[in-house]
Specification:
With about 180 residues, the chain is mainly beta. It has helices spanning about 65-70, 155; strands at about 5-10, 10-20, 20-30, 35, 40, 45-50, 55-60, 80-85, 90, 105, 110-115, 130-140, 140, 160-165, 170. Strands 1, 2, 3, 4, 5, 6 and 15 form a 7-stranded antiparallel beta sheet that branches. Strands 7-8 form a two-stranded antiparallel ribbon. It starts with a strand and ends in a 14-residue tail after the last strand.
């Protein structure tokens, strides 16, 4: 199991492997070849960033039975998909900007799947071959700006509405974990 991070040290951004309380700097790309590039750094002197910079974020809405029941709705037969722009992504511990026109801000802890290589029209039985790993996501929503039927961009697409991280974890069984969130 590896835990990839992005970090900032002074004005420099780097990639690394999180090992205990230290970060081992890497050179190359976590997607197609990397190598350690120096001595481990103590993580307490570094700022952790979003572990990746996605070109797009695809979310699935109303996909938890408890959420659907709380809203008095049935789970949809097909997933309700929505997009978030890359400008929504921030790292762990970064502040979420609460837009002045929003009166009800919602949040949900999610497990984000990080795709490791370009793909399209992948057969379901081959899908996991394209997964690099998983990271934590906080799906922020302006609930009062979210229509019952799409598009959901207005309620979900604000800058800072997609905190990610701190790490991309490989070789994780998503069915064996529990996610928790505190406010």
């Amino acid at each position: 199991m590896q835990r990839f991070v992005r970090f900032q040290r002074d004005a420099e951004v780097g990639l690394g492997l999180l090992e205990g309380d230290d970060i081992v700097p890497l050179k190359g790309s976590i997607y197609d070849g990397w190598q350690p590039s120096g001595a481990a750094l103590p993580s307490n002197g570094l700022r952790l960033l979003s572990p990746c910079t996605p070109s797009k974020i695809i979310g699935a809405g109303l996909n938890y039975r408890s959420v659907a029941e709380a809203k008095g709705k049935e789970l949809p037969a097909e997933p309700i998909l929505f997009l978030k722009p890359p400008s929504a992504v921030i790292g762990p511990e970064e502040p979420i900007v609460y837009p002045s026109m929003v009166h009800e801000l919602g949040f949900e802890v999610e497990l984000a799947v990080v795709i490791g290589r370009r793909c399209r029209r992948v057969a379901p039985d081959s899908a996991l071959e394209y997964v690099l790993g998983y990271t934590l996501a906080n799906d922020i929503t302006a609930k009062d700006l979210l229509p019952d039927s799409g598009p959901w961009l207005m309620g979900k697409g604000f800058d800072t509405f997609q905190p990610l991280g701190p790490a991309i974890v490989t070789d994780l069984d998503p069915g064996s974990i529990t996610l928790e969130m505190w406010l």
